[in-house]
Amino acid sequence: MYYINYTMENNILKLIKYLYYFSLITLVILYLFPGSIIGYFLYNDLGRQPNFIDNPIGTSINHFFYFVYLTSLAIICNSRNKRFFSSLIFIISISIILEILHFIIPNRAFEINDLAANILGVMLVLIIKKIIR
Predict the structure, then answer these.
(1) Total number of domains constituting the chain
(2) pLDDT > 80? residue 57
């Protein structure tokens, strides 16, 4: 019985790792595409960013939620080893690099609110992790 539970845990952890890697690839594609892929599918307009939740900061809330999700996956993937800190450095670095690349990508614009939302999403998960432990 122990072997079955252990195997199931490993399979679930592998599935979560694949989801994490798929989410990273999706993030890079969404950030580097010259326009809004999601806006194209929802509104048939590459220039329109979707605003999933009405709020005063606009579409930056989407960045916040995605980075909460991505950081949560990173925590789960690295829960058994000591590479947790390096994954957070990676997520924050990729956030900064991808947002800075908006300076040179056509139809995209660097927004400090988006960068702040990315980093706040990572920090929120860290705070919740500290409270839980």
Answers:
(1) 1
(2) no
Q: Which two tokens stand for residue 32?
A: 């580097």
Residues 73/19, Cβ–Cβ less than 8 Å: yes
Question: Which are the contacts of 103, defined by CB distance < 8 A and separation ≥ 6?
Answer: 110
Cβ neighbours around 99 below 10 Å, total = 21
- Domain around 7: 2-132
In the block, residue with structure tokens 């709020």? 55
Q: Which helix (H) or strand (E) holds 100?
A: helix 84-100
| pLDDT (tens digit per residue) in 60-80 | 888 999 999 999 999 888 877
Contact 60, 117 (CB under 8 A): yes
Q: pTM above 0.70?
A: yes
CA distance 89 to 52: 28
Dist CA 103 CA 107 (whole Å): 10
